[in-house]
Design a protein that fits this description.
The protein has 22 helices and no strands. The N terminus and C terminus are likely disordered. It has 362 residues and is an all-alpha fold.
Length: 362
C-alpha cells in the first residue's frame, strides 16, 4: 500500500488494547514514583525528577490528553516541558489511552495531506503530538514498546508529502525528529532491523533531494545512522539499484551544496560516502561516481572551519585512491555487484513493499 494510506485499520482498531494500563503504569499514575528497580536495589536513575507539585501537574496534563477539550493545551505544555521531565515518556506510554489519543491527532490530519490543505494551526497541533511521541521514542524503557506497536508507521504518510509550504515542511521535520530519535540509539540493532522492513530509506532519499536545508540534514542523518549499522550497510549494498539510488541522491546533494553551501549538511553527506566505502563493491563503484566537487577544492572554505569533516573526506579520498587505475568506462550495473544493487525493485519490494509490507515483515 502507498504510504499515503497510513497504517492498517487492523492496527488502529487494536490501539485501545495496545495502550491499556498495566501494573507498572498504575505505579506511575497512582504512586507518583519512578518504575521499580531490581529487587533490593535502588530505582533506576533517569536524571533529576520534577518537584512533587510540578509532577502532579504533569500527570494531570498527561491525563488531559485523553480529553478532547483539554488535549491541545496539554500537548502544547508537555511538548515544551519534555526535555526537563525524564519520566514523561513512561507516564505517556503507561497512562490509559494517552498514546492512542496522540495517534488520533496524527490520523486526523491524513485527509489534509492529499490534496494539500494543511493550516498552520493543524500543523502545529500535530507537531506537538509528534514531539511527545519523539519523547517516547527517545526513552530507553519505552523505545522497544514503541517499535513493537509499529508506531513509526503512522508517521510515513506525513513524510510522503511534497508540498513546500511551511506547515508541511514543519510537519515533515517533526516527523523526521521521531525517526531521528530512534536511530540515534545506534547500539540497538532492533531499531535498524525494524526500519529496514519499512520504506523509510526511499522516503528519506526523496526529502534529501527536495526538502529544505533542515529537513535534508535530518533525513541524511537518518540514512547515515542506517549505514553505520552493519545490517543497514549490507542492505543498501546488496543490489546495484539500491546503491545507485543512494549514490545518485548524494551526488545531487553535493552539486547542490557547491551552489548553496551548508557545513552541517556536508558533514552528513561525507559520512554517508565514507561509510559506503567500507563495502568493497560500493567502494569500487564510488571510484567512478564520486562527484567532482568532493575531489577538488570546491569545499575548501567550509572544510577549513570543520576539521572533522575535512578529515573524513581525506579518509574517503584515500580509500578510493587505493588501487585506482580506472580510466575505464563505468561498469555495467550487473557485473561485480551481485546482479545489481537494486533500489527500483529493492526499495519497493526490498523495503517491505510500502507500509502494508512493512507491517507484514514485522
Amino acid at each position: 500500500a502507498p504510504p499515503s494510506q497510513g497504517p492498517s485499520n487492523h492496527l488502529i482498531g487494536h490501539l485501545p488494547q495496545m495502550m491499556s494500563s498495566s501494573q507498572e503504569g498504575m505505579r506511575y499514575m497512582q504512586g507518583h514514583v519512578a518504575p521499580a528497580g531490581p529487587p533490593g536495589g535502588a530505582p533506576p536513575s533517569q536524571g533529576p525528577t520534577a518537584p512533587p507539585l510540578e509532577r502532579e501537574k504533569v500527570i494531570q496534563y498527561v491525563l488531559d490528553i485523553t480529553n478532547e477539550d483539554t488535549r491541545e493545551y496539554a500537548m502544547l505544555v508537555l511538548s515544551k516541558k519534555r526535555d526537563s521531565l525524564p519520566d514523561l515518556a513512561p507516564l505517556i506510554w503507561y497512562s490509559y489511552g494517552t498514546v492512542a489519543a496522540l495517534l488520533q491527532e496524527i490520523v486526523a490530519i491524513y485527509p489534509l495531506l492529499f490534496p494539500p490543505n494543511l493550516s498552520a494551526n493543524a500543523s502545529n497541533r500535530a507537531s506537538n503530538a509528534l514531539a511527545l511521541l519523539q519523547c517516547v521514542a527517545s526513552h530507553a524503557e519505552t523505545r522497544p514498546l514503541f517499535l513493537q506497536a509499529h508506531i513509526p508507521l503512522f508517521l510515513y504518510p506525513l513524510l510522503n508529502t511534497n508540498s513546500k509550504s511551511r506547515p508541511f515542511e514543519y510537519l515533515r521535520l517533526t516527523s523526521l525528529g521521531v525517526i531521528g530519535a530512534l536511530v540515534k540509539q545506534s547500539d540497538e540493532p532492533t531499531v535498524i532491523d525494524f526500519l529496514l522492513q519499512t520504506e523509510i530509506i526511499p522516503l528519506c532519499l526523496r526529502i534529501m533531494e527536495t526538502g529544505n536545508d533542515l529537513n535534508k540534514t535530518v533525513s541524511t542523518f537518518i540514512v547515515q545512522k542506517i549505514l553505520i549499522d552493519e545490517g543497514g550497510l549490507q542492505y543498501i549494498c546488496q543490489t546495484y539499484e539500491r546503491f545507485s539510488h543512494v549514490a545518485l541522491i548524494l551526488g545531487k546533494m553535493v552539486h547542490g551544496l557547491a551552489k548553496i553551501p551548508s557545513a552541517r549538511l556536508l558533514k552528513h553527506v561525507v559520512r554517508c560516502y565514507l561509510r559506503l566505502a567500507d563495502n568493497a563493491r560500493a567502494r569500487d563503484a564510488l571510484k567512478q561516481v564520486l562527484p567532482e566537487p568532493l575531489r577538488d577544492n570546491t569545499f575548501a572554505g567550509l572544510l577549513k572551519e570543520d576539521p572533522s569533516t575535512k578529515r573524513w573526506l581525506q579518509s574517503l579520498l584515500a580509500a578510493l585512491s587505493e588501487g585506482a587505475p580506472n580510466a575505464l568506462p563505468a561498469p555495467a550495473p550487473a557485473p561485480g555487484l551481485n546482479g545489481g544493487m537494486g533500489m527500483g525493485s529493492g526499495m519497493g519490494a526490498g523495503m517491505g513493499g510500502g507500509i502494508g509490507g512493512g507491517m507484514g515483515g514485522m
